[in-house]
Amino acid sequence: MGCINEIMSKHCIPADYEGFLLQVFQDTFHLLQNLTKDNTKNASRNILAEVDDVYVEKFTDFLMLFVIHHLKRFESNAQFPILEFLALLFKYTFQQPTLDGFYSCLDVWNVFLDYLSYKLKNENNNYEMTLNKYKDVLLALSQEILRKLQFRYNQSDLEELDDEDLNDDCFTEWQSFLCQCLEIVSKVSELLPIEIFHLVFSIFEENLRIYFDLEQFLKPSLNNSPLELNVCGENECRRLHCSLRDLSSMLQALGRLVVYMIKTAAPLVLKVDFIEVHAQILATLKAFCYWLTQYVKETKDGNSESSIEKIIAEIAIANIKKRKTQIVVYRSMSNVLVLPWNNVAVDAQQLWPIRSSQHDLLIQSLCEPLRTACSRPNFFQDKLIQERSKPDILWVLQVMCGLIENVSDGSTRTKQVFYKSLQSTISFVESLFHLYLQHSDVTESILEFYLCSSSQLFGIQSRPSICAKNYAEFLDFIFHRKNQVMEFTLNESSSGCKVIEKLLQLLQQVVQEPSSHFKAFLPSTIELCLGQIYPFIAERPSSEVKPPLFELLHNILLHNYRYFFKVNVVNSLGESGNEKIENEQHFTKIMEAYGQSFLQPDIVLFKQNLFSLETLNNKWKLFYKGYFKSVMLFHFLSLLLKTLIYRTHNLLKEEIISTIYNMALVDFNCFYTVFLQQFLQSMENLDTNQKSSLLRNFKRDTDLHSFAESIQRFVSDLRYYCLCTNTSL
């Protein structure tokens, strides 16, 4: 089977071999019949369970290759009965002895459904005829899948599926099984939406009726005691358990199918089942909510305002204790005021001025604890008052960050209204930074606040200079107190490390902004990174601060190219690489930091910076710049080549060779005639003959594939020579 699968994996088969392929498929058809045939003597006997697992796996692979590469070729061939083949595939799927085998068969059906959907999209005149041809197969497949995932019919097998431990995709074994089954049903519903809906809804309705009928089994509560469910019999509990599990599954199925429909105290064993049913009800309503807004109608009741007031009066926000719940309520209140009304087409009727004023009052009231704290007598001098005010300050910052993130996808007008309300709060937050500089939790929250607001509100077009000015003042404050800020890097085991990470993330936003207000901070940002932060962490083998630091350096180079390389008309018309370098010292220090990172064992950082250099070269032709080419190119080539020789980062071998190739591509002649000679001369543990042999055997190819082979041969030969002479690398 392995040999046959190798042949079947070839997509392009000469026409002369189609007869041979047809014979192979016909033989496979008979083999499939034998594997799935019913045993009249022993109806419960499953032939597939007696076949070697590896063989079954190979056979499933064969079916997959057939559907992917060759189904189109033989579907219309009269000598190949396609419907009979699908019927056998159906039996083969549901006779699988293992769950992995069943999943593999579902993958085959998945590919077939993709093929059928594509074919139907290109059928103009024969759409109905083609669909009707496969309709019975698709309905039978969906019906059997729905039967297989129901506890009513398959409880013993389904109970064995783990529903607690999560896999790498954050699914339990049961959730993964359910999702893969429903994915196939969902794909069939694209082709047969009405039929699949009736299949799912009939199961859902049956179990829902049982759920509603439970009301008659509730014992009346006495003295405010909890309600009790009067279902105690073992068989009744088992049937109810199965029904509740199936109701949850069908709710999930309905939620999965909604897009196609719109377009076109119980016993302890039952407690989890009820929770699951309620969770799936909410999840299903969530799926419907998006579509409900498309059909929303205004109420005709003129007394709706008084009704809303009564509801608000009943919901006392002050009584909501959980912080997450509070934030959800505040988000809803903010959304009403800042998001456009869907059913109001004319902008003038959106009542933006009135809503903006109301939103100002909302933000002002939410930020009142922070304002009150700052207004207390001796607040800026008394450490005890500052400590007592921390919970209020942290609460306001968390709420504001939640509201800011909530408008991240909003329109420009929405962000304008929000920023106008937030503007007065920014100055208060800025005044707190120096007071709580030694309190990492508050400092981190303040930086998180600036990070959220900068990433979401920098881009608004209304009064951008004022927005930039507020943040520029905050950055100016940080740079003037950089020695205090840097105390957080001295002890990376402390939570202060997170403060530095947040600061670096904020600066990443700043260096990407085109405004001149922020460009003025570029030199200070580079000095902070390379003069203050980097010296503390440079020699440490690993550091949580390094990735965001180098991400910031990458963004400085990527978004501020003209800070380092001035481009004028004369240069643009001249040869590439003649650009004059500006701020040479800063550029050199950044490149030296990159080089230093390649000498350390942190493979994640190595990969990050290697990708950074490649990105800069693709965007700005970094390797071709005259200064880089004349001063740094050979150093980077030597460093990366030695990395291959020493095998310190062998997992990134292909990426390293690709970067070496792109650097050599700048001037292949110079690479072969100058660099390789200089590099070999620096290898003192090789004799003259060995160096000459290595240089002579290095083929001067210019395509990546051949170059990569030459590099790997060069590295292997060099290591071999060192091994022969017992010299260390």
UniProtKB/TrEMBL annotation:
GO terms for biological process: protein export from nucleus. The keyword Transport applies. It is found in: Cytoplasm; Nucleus. The keyword NAD does not apply. Its main location: cytoplasm. Keywords: Cytoplasm, Nucleus, Protein transport, Transport. One of its GO terms (molecular function) is nuclear export signal receptor activity. GO terms for cellular component: cytoplasm; nucleus. Belongs to the exportin family. PANTHER family: EXPORTIN-6. This is Exportin-6. It comes from Caerostris extrusa (Bark spider).
